[in-house]
Amino acid sequence: MEFDLNPEQQLLKESVRRVLEKEFPKAYAREMDEKGEFPFKLWHRMAELGWTALPIPKEYGGAGGTILDMTILVEELSRWITAGALLYMETLSFGAFSIICHGNEEQKKFFLPAIAKGEIIFALGLTEPSGGSDALSLSSTATPDGDEFVLNGEKIYITMAHVADYMIVVARTEKKVQKRSQGI
Q1: How far, in Å, CA of 112 to CA of 96, rounded?
Q2: Backbone angles phi, psi at 124, to 5 degrees
């Protein structure tokens, strides 16, 4: 099995590292932390460079990259500014991939091009007061109501909730299941 990066992936890694070293030095991360500010400048730059489009299918305005491409980018972001990596993961992994895997065509056409352009930010609503971040202990419910769902429950400690445009909310859709991992 081959574990080396191909030439395009190596170029991606080097390019991301160069941009971060030059435009977002470690002092930037410290400043954002000290001020309690969100790294919007970094998010907008990621969009300009096409990083937010990387894992999104081409038919929705993305670059059609792979999970490995995204992993390379996140690894480099993590080396420089953890908040940037977290922002990327929340929006691309939880937002975009949830929509790619489970969204209908209308949702894909609406959300994916906007994510690719860096126009929207997602958060993940998982953590609850009674069960923490254990998805199997969810008490929040999503009950079908026509073409929509009615959400009931509480969420706490939602990373990026204060800046997110949308949130993927994790809830139980079925109460009577054989395994706790079903009906989420």
Answers
A1: 6
A2: -115, 120
